Amino acid sequence: MISASLTEPAIADHDICVVGSGPAGLVLALEAARRGQRVLVLESGSNHADRLQQALSDADIVDPLRHDDMSIAVSRRLGGTSNLWAVRCQPFDPIDLEPRPGLVDAAWPLRYADILPYYDAAVDYLTAGANVFRSPIAGVDITDDTIDYTRLERFSAVAAVQTAHRREIERSSRIDVRLNATVVDMTFENGRISGLTVADRDGTRRDLPVRTVVLAAGGLESTRQLLVLQRKHPGLFGGEDGPLGRYYMGHVIGEIADIVFNSDTIDAAYDFYLDGHGSYARRRLIPSDAAQIDRHLLNVSFWPVVPPVADPRHRSGLLSMVCLAFAIPPFGRLVIAEAIRKRHIPDDLAVWPHIVNILRDLPRAGLSIAAFLYKRYLARPPMPGFFARNAARRYGLSYHAEQSPQPDSRVTLSDDRDRLGVPKLRIDYRFARADAEAVARAHAVLADWLTRTGVGCLEYRQPQEETVDAILALAAHGTHQIGTARMAARPEDGVVDENLRCFGIDNLYVASSATFPTSGQCNPTLSIAAFAVRLAEHLAGGRHD
């Protein structure tokens, strides 16, 4: 059931109360319901984007050049951030959970084998086809394993989780979703959360008794709830100097080089494609575990992207069409997420050179854009992004690198409050120069491998001695909210245990990337879903209908 009302009586009759209805919250609710649990889901937003409710996530960002604005980093509506992205899916790599002293100051309290069995269900819930994340390239057999060139990322066939599972959510007698229901307070007594105070869109409040609470409101919003609770009970989570709110990570992303492939076979292999499992996939280039250890690398992945569309020197009518379309915010947001659009389109975009490119290349560009629009909006599943191959086989090289946990990269509560009286977040998001140096070393490893194997070559966009500074200049994120409520074996080291239960609180859990001690090279959504499935199993005591 999905309802916008807080007054219907069934709301009090539940085993688990889930705060948030993004991928974590809905996957948890669906899996727990299948295991016989009655689940109440409280969603702050409605079925659609709501500026009034979205503004509840506004925060004080110390360096706006480093962190995305909260209006594009989070989504207060049914389905959460699955409404914003094409939902890239990749599992964690085994090395992400391994101790790496001297490189990463973090330790997972569980093994890779403890989460691996849950990826099958996570892929199904996220409609990402199959738990298949490697695919050889026909006719290509490279024995040098320094770089794994067969790794896949997958994309959800239906990105919005609430759309993919709407029928089950609406028909289930065990799932009760309430919209415009914002948790503004938690009552903590005798080592348990005994109740939640929930406000509707107009600010009217209601107290709800609870048995078990799972915070699944995204990394930052879940952490914010815990910080508010800690302010009322300063002894929780190690106090002000404890781990809560610290170690804020996303990923180190950008482009500082171009990649040129030496064959059409390799060139074609890195485009989006349907692999027979019902969803789009795309290959990435990832250094092997041995290479990471030997060269002291953080985990990182690379893939080719179109040249910078805002630079008219590409002389491509198609890319200029894409650029001008992206430059119109309402249209650009329909094609790509706003956080990505803003990174590609400068405020001072020169329009006329792009118009010249379009006029020069009009017939071919028109056909290409028509084909893209068909695959993006009419075909099922939709193509998840834009990529245009070119005769020179030359592309930008995008990197997506692990960010190391740093205690001074953190979120705290500010003195300002939102319209419902809840303290806002103060976000002090930082990047370490050592991380940029690791990304630079990874480029060098990839460049050597490309040349050695004859796959292609790498061409830097700046003098190599300026590469680290270039990586730091591009470093900005905010949509992958990792580490601020990290899991650990001891309360001195983290906020939740291996089962995602908060230390010191018997019935409060966190289902969010905020609990991940490391960020890995991949987008976190698939692992968030896998941990949500695992948590549902734990809360249901292993039962399954």
3D architecture notes:
With 545 residues, this protein is α/β, with parallel strands linked by helices. Among the domains are: 2-63 and 74-140 and 156-249 and 481-539, FAD/NAD(P)-binding domain (3-Layer(bba) Sandwich); 308-386, no CATH class. Helix content is 30%, strand content 20%. It has 18 helices and 21 strands. It has helices at 23-34, 51-54, 70-73, 112-115, 119-125, 161-164, 166-171, 219-232, 264-269, 289-294, 317-327, 329-335, 338-344, 352-360, 362-378, 433-453, 467-474, 525-539; strands at residues 2-3, 16-19, 39-42, 60-61, 88-89, 147-155, 175-178, 182-189, 192-199, 205-209, 213-215, 251-254, 257-261, 273-274, 280-287, 300-305, 394-402, 410-417, 423-428, 456-460, 508-510. The two termini are 19 Å apart. The model has no long low-confidence stretch (mean pLDDT 94).
Helix-strand makeup class: alpha/beta
Stretches where pLDDT is under 50 for at least 5 consecutive residues are none
Mean pLDDT: 94
User: What is the level-2 CATH architecture name of the domain at 2-63 and 74-140 and 156-249 and 481-539?
Assistant: 3-Layer(bba) Sandwich
**Rg, alpha carbons:** 23 Å
CATH class of the domain at 2-63 and 74-140 and 156-249 and 481-539: Alpha Beta
Record the strand order, biggest sheet.
1-7-3-2-11-21
Query: What fold name goes in the CATH topology slot of the domain at 2-63 and 74-140 and 156-249 and 481-539?
Result: FAD/NAD(P)-binding domain
Main β-sheet, in a few words? 6 strands, parallel
CATH superfamily of the domain at 2-63 and 74-140 and 156-249 and 481-539: FAD/NAD(P)-binding domain
User: Using DSSP, what is the number of strands?
Assistant: 21
Helix amount:
25-40%
> Please, how many helices?
18
Beginning-to-end CA distance, first to last residue? 19 Å
**Shape by Cα distribution:** globular
The portion of residues forming beta strands comes to 15-25%
